[in-house]
Design goal:
Blueprint (H helix, E strand, L loop, with lengths): L1 E3 L2 H4 L11 H13 L2 E3 L2 H31 L9 H4 L5 H7 L12 H19 L2 E4 L3 H4 L4 H6 L2 E4 L2 H7 L5 H19 L10 E12 L2 E12 L5 E11 L2 E12 L2 E2 L5 E8 L4 H14 L2
Parallel strand pairs: 1-2, 3-4
Antiparallel strand pairs: 5-6, 6-7, 7-8, 8-9, 8-10
Length: about 290
């Protein structure tokens, strides 16, 4: 488990000289024993340094005032420079002294945890020029995050199937969606979509099939392809299937080079057998019935 420590947990109400507070050390020790990775966000680190710098400045001021008082009273003493005597703690050194790897504290609520993970995912994606976040949480996959995610090339997937499709690992559902695109490609080109004559699918994601008694009734997925001019084509696809026959295909959020194409949607009527699925579905269904006593 990754334990993310927020600044309010890392915060101490005094200047740290040699050790963390006992409760904080117990937390670090528990993480070490449990094999949990600790992550301290940069914002928490900056806040920790700021607060400790304020404590150190306050201690130096008190020492300076004490020097003045002793001088006024004529007391002989050996002066030491406050800046040399009172220093801000080095967080990394304190952690190493505990034989701990830096790691952040666990948040107190699911909402805060999700927001922290979201912020980390955005930062990682921005620094790495892209990343993949695998999560079913609405905070991570909802439409409200579309703009932020797109800005740093953060790809969000809700299942292992979607992740595999993103990494272009073939899965049965992805292969079927690709086959459907190849099946209806001539109709899409004939309807005026800016696509080359031959299928040019480069990616399939978010594949979902809805099944009825006699096989699949519909399919939904997102597709990426090369446009007729070599650019990037993308759309969300909805497929209607009747008795093993693809009857209609609708496209929405159609984009070419990230720009909306026309009004962003279109539909075509198709009457073609679903490739390789209907017969196989019946065979698998018959085999399953044969297993039931």
């Amino acid at each position: 488990m990754i334990v993310i420590i927020n600044s309010d947990i890392l915060y101490h109400q005094y200047l740290i000289s040699e050790r963390f507070s006992p409760s904080f050390e117990r937390l670090l020790d528990a993480c070490a024993q449990g094999g949990h990775e600790v992550l301290i966000p940069e914002t928490a680190l900056l806040e920790f340094r700021r607060s400790q710098a304020e404590f150190a400045a306050g201690q130096r001021s008190k020492l300076q005032n004490a020097y003045r008082t002793l001088t006024d009273l004529g007391v002989v003493f050996q002066r030491q420079e406050p800046d040399a005597l009172i220093r801000e703690p080095d967080l990394m050194a304190l952690l190493v002294a505990l034989h701990q790897a830096p790691h952040p504290a666990q948040s107190k609520s699911d909402e805060m945890r999700d927001l922290v993970i979201w912020a980390i995912a955005l930062r990682v994606a921005a620094g790495a020029h892209g990343a993949v976040l695998l999560s079913r949480d609405d905070v991570h996959s909802g439409v409200l995050g579309d703009t932020e995610a797109a800005g740093v090339h953060l790809v969000r997937v809700r299942s292992c199937e979607e992740a595999l499709e993103f990494f272009q690992v073939k899965t049965p559902a992805g292969e079927m969606a690709t086959a459907i695109m190849a099946l209806v490609w001539p109709e899409l080109v004939g309807a005026g979509l800016p696509l080359p004559v031959g299928p040019s699918v480069t990616g399939i994601s978010g594949v979902r099939f809805v099944h009825g008694q006699n096989g699949p009734r519909s399919a939904m997925f997102s597709v990426k392809a090369r446009s007729d001019k070599g650019g990037d084509f993308g759309a969300k696809v909805g497929v209607e299937i009747e008795d093993g026959v693809v009857s209609r295909v609708g496209l929405s959020d159609v984009r070419v080079d990230e720009e909306r194409w026309r009004d962003g949607s279109m539909g075509v009527v198709v009457k073609k057998p679903l490739p390789g699925w209907a017969d196989d579905y019946q065979e698998r269904l018959a085999a399953l019935r044969g297993m039931v006593v």
